[in-house]
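User: My collaborator sent over this chain with a note saying "see what the structure looks like." That's all I know about it. Can you take a look?
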Amino acid sequence: MRDGEIACFLLPLLGITALVPTVSVAEMAPLTQLAPIEDSPDWLVGMYEWRNINVPVLSYEVLNGVAELAVNTQGRIAVFNNTGVDERVPFVAIYTQGIPRMTRVGEKDIQEDPNGTKGEFDLMCITVGVEEFNIPDIPGMEMLYAKYLDS
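Assistant: Without extra context I'll predict from the sequence alone. Here is the result:
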């Protein structure tokens, strides 16, 4: 890796591609049956048993108000590492709509895109060259799930 490059995953989602640093991702896991949660909000898809831990799977698309829950059988579960928001939430996960791929992005190549479609659970929209990406708000997802635990 060259200086100033960040190893990232490109996560295909409905209508957008999310860009996340690889250090944010604990694992890209195969789709599997989730344990349902009774009377949960529509953004909370279920619990994924991963390494003997129940990980909440959230719908990124529902959180951002762009679509109803959609599951592509070719997708994966992206398990995100804890960002330190709440110790009760060691991991959160989202569905991807296809197979994620790895890339390297130069810090100098990243430009914020003020005209991009930024959802409530996006930190920002960016362009890298001519490609547009959204950076998900992983801490925001953790906070939302922690608030759900308190309700």
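A starting point for your reply to your collaborator: The first helix runs from residue 60 to 63.
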